[in-house]
Amino acid sequence: MINAEIYKQEDGKITGFLIDGHANTAPHGQDIFCAGVSTITQSAYLCIVQHLKRKIEGDSASGRLMLKLKTPPDDLTEAVFQTMLIGLHEIEKLAPQALKVIE
């Protein structure tokens, strides 16, 4: 199972995330749920870093992606994170055995 832990500050704004695990619903390289989660979260990661040019603490390895903002979230980072979160919740609805979103 993939666990998607969403980090928030007291006002509810998202400050980062940790994605860990594998969906294990199909053979490696053929799992559409792993592919979907990877695409959504890596797109958010790249947008925050490359487009918005925010400073982050990040880590990636097989089955793991972590991002934490080094500065407070703003309206632009929140839009990216909320878009990511909506996509993750949609995958979770389709495959609760593959993905758990923890807020």
Number of helices: 2
Strands, total number: 5
Estimate the global geometry from the Cα principal axes.
globular
**Structural class per helix/strand content?**
alpha+beta
User: Level of helix content?
Assistant: 25-40%
Strand content: 25-35%
Features of this protein?
alpha+beta; five-stranded mixed sheet; 103 residues
Describe it.
- By secondary structure, the protein is of the alpha+beta class.
- Helix content is 39%, strand content 30%.
- The protein has two helices and five strands, in the order ββαββαβ.
- The protein has a five-stranded mixed sheet with strand order 3-4-2-1-5, with helices on one face.
- It is globular and about 40 Å long.
Outline:
With 103 residues, the chain is of the alpha+beta class. The protein contains two helices and five strands. The chain has helices at 32-51, 75-94; strands at residues 2-8, 14-21, 56-61, 64-69, 99-102.
SSE layout and pairing:
Elements: E1 2-8, E2 14-21, H1 32-51, E3 56-61, E4 64-69, H2 75-94, E5 99-102
Helix pairs in contact: 1-2
